[in-house]
Amino acid sequence: MKASPAAVWLKAEMDKAGRTIVEPNFSISSQPEVFVIGDTARLTDTAGKLVPGLAPAAVQAGKYVAGVIHKRITNNPLPPPFKYFDAGTMATIGRGKAIALIRGFAFSGFIAWWTWGIVHILPLIGFRNRIIVGLDWLWSYFTNARGARLIATYKRKPVDNSIER
After folding, report:
1. What domain range includes position 102?
2. Do residues 24 and 79 touch, judged by C-beta distance below 8 A?
3. What is the mean pLDDT of residues 76-85?
4. Which residues, including other chains, have CB under 8 Å from residue 5's CB and lie 6 or more apart?
5. Cα angle at 107 between 113 and 109, to 5 degrees?
6. What is the CATH classification number for the domain harbouring 62?
7. Residue 152 lies in a domain
8. Tens of pLDDT along 65-79?
9. Domains contained in the chain, number
10. How many angstroms separate the CA atoms of 120 and 101, rounded?
11. Domain check: are 13 and 68 in the same one?
12. Distance CA 91, CA 116 (A)
């Protein structure tokens, strides 16, 4: 595994893992108009915790940065530094099996697997979408159907990352 080369592209400071070291509002000290979030950013929040490179952290960071940008554009006071809210961690580990750690409560097996499914269906937009995805997952579970498993190779084109000022 290798971190995104964003720190190299941006000529920004990075940690040993290659993550871009960011300010408390996810901006880069040398370019305060540039923000880096997600698993390519290294930020220790106001609680002193390293923000994990997980989707929930990236979603929270994205909402936070959108607020920072909005405040800058409207010349309003900036929000306080980012603080990550850890709602828990979950992972599927097999057919009908998962692990979960939610607010200090750890559980596994079939119940964790159902919980994982519910947690991932609830954010979908619209009742119809939730039903369709839920039924599709149930169908796949009961029929042992496998989803598409694609392995695609591609050649990366060089990217010109120069910034015109």
Report:
1. 89-143
2. no
3. 93
4. 18
5. 40
6. 3.50.50.60
7. no
8. 999 999 999 999 999
9. 2
10. 15
11. yes
12. 7
